């Protein structure tokens, strides 16, 4: 497994590393959107650093699991190599295969569950949304469920989706899926989220 920074070694708020909800006209309830670009406001970003922060909402203890999120999983397209089921391996591959002139590293979506009374309900919902993206667009998504109440916070249960904005198949990372690369993707993803919540 590649070496990664721990959340405790990263001081900046990761929400300052990208533009969140850039399209005011197409916001959705309990939904946040952004695109992590390699350079944002003079900051050099990496998929590995961003994924680490979301997978480690609290620093791991020595000898303990690297992932401290309530639950985490990578949802893969059907033809993707199984090794990308490790979120740190997938994030490192995104950084390694970044293409010059193509700034998008990750599409970032957060789904909020303020009325959640069972964590597995929120997990199932977020996971099934990510599974739909994998099936319909051939993209991999790291899903990390956070349960802030465990740390005494009043913030709601929420799930972070780190969507790799490229087709992932047996050949590896391929073409960019523009839905996940630009601010205009917020409109369609918000629509898909609203549709998902109604089903």
How would you summarize the topology of this molecule?
Blueprint: E1 31-37, E2 39-40, E3 43-44, H1 47-55, E4 71-75, H2 87-96, E5 104-113, H3 119-137, E6 141-146, E7 157-163, E8 166-169, E9 172-176, H4 185-198
Class from helix and strand fractions: alpha+beta
How many angstroms separate the termini? 38 Å
Low-confidence stretches: 1-11
Would you list the SSEs in sequence order as H and E?
EEEHEHEHEEEEH
Helix content: 25-40%
* Cross-sheet strand order for the largest sheet: 1-5-7-6-4
Tell how many strands the DSSP assignment holds.
Answer: 9
The shape, in one word, is: globular
- How many individual helices? 4
Give the integer mean of the pLDDT values: 93
Main beta sheet strand tally, sense and closure: 5 strands, antiparallel
| Rg estimate, integer Å | 16 Å
Report strand %.
15-25%
Description:
By secondary structure, this protein is an alpha+beta fold. It has four helices and nine strands. The chain has helices at residues 47-55, 87-96, 119-137, 185-198; strands spanning 31-37, 39-40, 43-44, 71-75, 104-113, 141-146, 157-163, 166-169, 172-176. α1 (47-55) packs antiparallel against α2 (87-96). The radius of gyration is 16 Å and the shape is globular.
Task: Briefly characterize the structure.
The protein has 199 residues and is α+β, with helices and mostly antiparallel strands.
